[in-house]
Amino acid sequence: MSVERTGVATLKGNPITLLGPELKVGDKAPDFQLNKSLVEAVSLKDLAGKVKLISVIPSIDTGVCDAQTRRFNEEAAKLGDNVAVLTVSVDLPMAQARWCGAAGVENVVMLSDYKDNSFGEAYGVLIKELRLDMRSIFVLDVNDTVQYVEYLSEMTEHPNYEQAIEAVKSLL
């Protein structure tokens, strides 16, 4: 049975329930198995030796998620090869690829949590009522220790882009 966290997040002011633990700075990041395509999976160990910025969005086809992914795509181009910038959502890999092609997004790695929502539950961002992942940001160092985390309290708000980017830069 998963940990349920209520009263910590809303969607347009309406309470939602998050499943999973609340990760904190200093925690070892849980491993994950996310899909880059229907047949290709990516895990934390595939990104070994890199600083990781994980941008979690509910769905790429919404305005804030679109803007968040475009912003981190721009930033990723400036951060260098020692940083992996990931965008995680429950959108199907084909929808993610279609969106990236249409948007010209090439610097972030789009990963899907659609199969079993295991990332969402491990990182404490799975929305029980919607089966979507709550908007959040995680920065992991090269040893996969959480160095920055932002769980948004309102799903429709933007994350603090500047703080997340500064957290990444401080690890380089």
Automatic annotation (TrEMBL):
<dbReference type="Pfam" id="PF08534">
    <property type="entry name" value="Redoxin"/>
</dbReference>
<keyword id="KW-0049">Antioxidant</keyword>
<dbReference type="GO" id="GO:0004601">
    <property type="term" value="F:peroxidase activity"/>
</dbReference>
<keyword id="KW-0575">Peroxidase</keyword>
<comment type="subunit">
    <text>Homodimer.</text>
</comment>
<comment type="function">
    <text>Thiol-specific peroxidase that catalyzes the reduction of hydrogen peroxide and organic hydroperoxides to water and alcohols, respectively. Plays a role in cell protection against oxidative stress by detoxifying peroxides.</text>
</comment>
<dbReference type="InterPro" id="IPR036249">
    <property type="entry name" value="Thioredoxin-like_sf"/>
</dbReference>
<dbReference type="InterPro" id="IPR013740">
    <property type="entry name" value="Redoxin"/>
</dbReference>
<keyword id="KW-1015">Disulfide bond</keyword>
<feature type="active site" description="Cysteine sulfenic acid (-SOH) intermediate">
    <location>
        <position position="65"/>
    </location>
</feature>
<keyword id="KW-0676">Redox-active center</keyword>
<keyword id="KW-0560">Oxidoreductase</keyword>
<dbReference type="InterPro" id="IPR013766">
    <property type="entry name" value="Thioredoxin_domain"/>
</dbReference>
<dbReference type="InterPro" id="IPR050455">
    <property type="entry name" value="Tpx_Peroxidase_subfamily"/>
</dbReference>
<feature type="domain" description="Thioredoxin">
    <location>
        <begin position="23"/>
        <end position="172"/>
    </location>
</feature>
<protein>
    <recommendedName>
        <fullName>Thiol peroxidase</fullName>
        <ecNumber>1.11.1.24</ecNumber>
    </recommendedName>
</protein>
<dbReference type="InterPro" id="IPR002065">
    <property type="entry name" value="TPX"/>
</dbReference>
<comment type="similarity">
    <text>Belongs to the peroxiredoxin family. Tpx subfamily.</text>
</comment>
